[in-house]
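Protein modeling request. Please complete all fields; requests missing the sequence field cannot be processed.
Requester role: graduate student
Desired output: 3D structure, token encoding
Chains: 1
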Amino acid sequence: MSKEVRLKQFFTTPTFRLAAIHLAIIMLLSVGFSVVFYHTSDRQFSRPFSPAATQNMPLSPLGNFEGRFDRELRSAMDERFNQTRQELLVKLVWINIVTLLLGAAVSYILARWSLKPIEEAMDAQAQFVSDASHELRTPLAVLQTTNEVALRKTKLPAAEARELAAHNVEEVKKLRDLTNMLLDLSKHTDEVAFEKVNLQDVVSEAMSSVVAVAQGKNITIEDTVPKLYTQTNQALLARIVSVLLDNAVKYSPNDTTITLSAIRSGKKVLLRVTDQGIGIRDAELPLIFRRFYRTDKSRSAQDTQGYGLGLAIANNIAQQIGAKIAVKSQIGKGSTFTVELPQN
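Delivered output (344 residues):
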């Protein structure tokens, strides 16, 4: 791509348009100030002497004011005033030129700084739509293929029809689960009701949603959470713990243990979910809360069912209740997710 083409493209970018607006505002202020300053100074140069200033001036023998100054002195003073006006005008022009150059640089920096979060949000939205479309495409394609195969048959035995119906129901459930997750990600409200909550009740509510899956893998869930109270929203906190437990069960081998614990640390309460799973690499820890993110190792090593939305949902809910989720992990030894809850 030639420099001319790149330059033309730059002139059509939002960055250039926003920078141009900033620069126009800066120059409007600078030029306006310069004009006002120049005219104010010019009036001061042209201002006549006051009567009080002329009282002590020597009078001419004729006794009139015109005789107080000779013509050469008047001419020198006028020339000096004109020269001062020109110098002031030149300086103001140079000041505006420098302001134009510096303003262009500052305007571009401000434009990039202003547009960066918007561009990041738009990129994230585009990536989210792309990932969601990809995840939706798979069950829809399976549904279409299996039903098209069935329609090509002139006769469909009852047993095969029931099998097809069961398969369709399973795929529809996957679509429903994915849709519910997407709706959970889109939800955000600042009106969250807080109450005094016993963490034991929260954990019991969360465990009920994963007990069946854990039993299928012979995974033991140890609840060591003491009777500890904090101000939070019980339903939302239980949803966070459910996501963390579900994630721990999915990525833990059979015949392992998941431990739930909680302690008070200063003015905060720390609720931990510890598993003996496959672990997460350090390079991937900052990425696991992204939507649709799942590590390649977890996909290949474990037969997991999911869309990579659970931790993103948990992180979104945590922000709503003023909590933070941290994670520590070691490959082959497991992970510990900590929910940090403020006391007030």
